[in-house]
Amino acid sequence: MRIAMGITYNGQAYQGWQSQLSGITVQDHLEAALSRFAASPISTNCAGRTDAGVHGLMQVVHFDSPVARAEASWVRGTNTFLPKDIAVQWVRTVPDDFHSRACATSRRYGYALLQSPVRPSVEAGRVGWVYQPLDLEPMQRAVQYLLGEHDFSSFRAAGCQAKSPVKTLYAIHIARSTQRPSASRDGMPSCYWRFDFQGSAFLHHMIRNIMGCLVVIGQGAQPPEWMLEVLNARSRKVAAPTFSPDGLYFLGPQYDPRWGLPTEAISFDWFA
User: Are residues 95 and 162 in the same domain?
Assistant: First the structure.
């Protein structure tokens, strides 16, 4: 019996998704919980790996179960053995040819960013942070150069294991919070920003490296056209430093409707 499962997690306490010898990863905790519930070893495949500190609002995994359980039982039973910052949201029985990674038609990420002269406190670990104000229009112009199929070597981490740096970005959306920016005592405005990315797949650190460049452009240190120069250079050396993982959220994969899988989790309402 092949099972598909939707997972949400706060990534602050973990060394990323993928299993490591330390055991301090989301996959390690999930597989341990599944194995305890099923009373049999279970290994999982995921739709997209996330880095240390990155959060997941709709990670999708699949595994072949050695036992039969009701879908609701998989949710409640697995959650019993999981830490409080990881939770199974839904379970579906799927055909044997379903694969959480290979069947995904695209993947979505979101980045939450606090613009403020004061560092985050309540939101620490859940949002990125910039001190200087950002300008929306230059950033919107800059992302247009990234849409479509490109070689994203300039935004690729040195340790990336992807077979090819060529990926396709379908959409990038940038929005400032609709609430009126609040002014601090020194007169600098504070507000939240949200960046949404949808693409075929993403390289290691690709979004965090794009975010680093967008912040540089949004703060006026480089013009929007600089993004095209960075892209065409195909060299990590010319891009901005890798931005913080704190505000990065894996919003999940998208699948053909024939699989009958949910497209969102309740945590999406919180992120919105």
Answer: no
Tell me, yes or no, whether 191 lies in a domain: yes
User: Binding site for substrate, residues?
Assistant: 109
- Say yes or no: 82 and 112 in one domain: no
Q: What letter would DSSP give residue 245?
A: S
Give a yes or no: residue 258 inside a domain: no
CB 23 within 8 A of CB 16: no
Contact criterion met (CB below 8 Å) for 88 and 5: yes
φ, ψ for residue 74 (rounded to 5)? -60, -40
Q: Residue 231: what pLDDT?
A: 97
Domain membership of residue 265 (yes or no) is: no
Q: Identify whether residues 96 and 117 lie together within a single domain.
A: no
Q: Which of 51, 64, 256, 269 is catalytic?
A: 51
Q: Is 51 a catalytic residue?
A: yes
pLDDT at position 263 is 85
Range of the domain at 66: 2-103
For residue 171 the two structure tokens come to 């959409």
Residues of the chain with pLDDT under 50: 185
pTM: 0.93
pLDDT recorded at residue 266: 77
Binding residue numbers: 109
